[in-house]
Please model this.
Amino acid sequence: MRFGVFLPPFAEFSEPQRVVALSQRAEASGWDGVFLWDHMLAFPGMAVADPWVIMAAVAAATRRIRIGALVTPLPRRRPWVLSRQMATLDLLSDGRLIGGIGLGDDGWGEFSSFGEAVDPIIRGQMLDEALGLLQGFLSGEPVRFSGRHYTVDSPALLPRPRQSPLPIWGGFRWPNRRPLTRIAKLQGCFPIFPTPGGLPPPDPIEIATIRGALLDLGARADIDIAVRCALSLEDAASLADTVAALEAAGTTWILEAVAPGDPPDDVMRIVSAGPPSTR
Model:
């Protein structure tokens, strides 16, 4: 089991220096990764920073922790541009990047505000085409493709990332099973559960169900399953049992969830206490 910090680069955490300092503290305190939300908009009036620029700063200021954006909505990205960002960041971090991709949604008007496709069926088609293109570009081979939404005839884009393949996790909203067919071909899975309140840990039975479905669809036995929850709110006496149950169900990463607007001092206190494995 690995443990990461998962925070939105919103409000006070839109300040890159604050996220870099938090990431350095996370590395020193024993966390395995720092992951950022990837959004254009948040609540009205709330500042939003670009996660890829911040991750580059984090990569340069740390040596061990994994970094990644969870999740990048491919339908609003040009896959050839994203492939260059990912390859460059993987080289800068010496092979510590984890890519996260998903459909995205229009909850804060992040598609409709800019005249982009809102229909989830169209965005799903774009996601499938863009994912194949992204993987092709990251391979360092020429890419030729003619689809419904993209037409590409490109020589190899170099340099390649340090990792081969660069791990990509697919995000989706459970219990929607349709994305699992796509995710089974990737290196990891990031299910988002419809949970109220302070993000309690997911039910291990649901994790086992997701893992079983992925394996039935041909996923590798070592596929990562990352879940977000607020373990800092768990009772200390039951924390070890909660982690053990999630691990037994197939969870490989637990990400400590930070909500938009959470006070930075509180977040720094949680990070400084270290992951459950060190407590």
